[in-house]
Amino acid sequence: SEEGRWRLCREALQILGLAVPVALSNLFEYLPVLFLVGAVGHLPGSREDLAAAALGRNYFNSCWSIAWGFTSALHTLAPQAEGAGCGHLHALHCQRAVLILTALCIPLAVLQVVSGSVLQLLGQNASVSIAAQPFAIRLVPRLF
Fold this sequence. Notes:
Number of strands: 0
Order of helices and strands: HHHHHH
Helix content: over 70%
Shape: flat
Number of helices: 6
Distance between the termini: 51 Å
Radius of gyration: 21 Å
């Protein structure tokens, strides 16, 4: 029926209103990586630089994914607290998440500082590992 189609369109628009900001957020999160690799790839004699940028970025991403995993727990707890009408629990979960993630990100930041040595221990090329370290270090603020 005509009424059902309009209702479907309204629901689709509501879903798009929620999904588009999330999709744009993800897009803008990964665009800097694309520009970084593209810019490094255009440098003359950039084969080792490109390898270092990619290695440093991947090393950072492996550490960052640990923090993201801890954050995903909040994505489950916060809506449950709000849905139950317990706004104070939502605030408590957020406060605890900030404290736990800060405590977690400090050792992850230290791992970025020593990334050259860690990458060499993992069997990566020494010169590329040393060149990757500045990329990993410059990404530390993203942890916090």
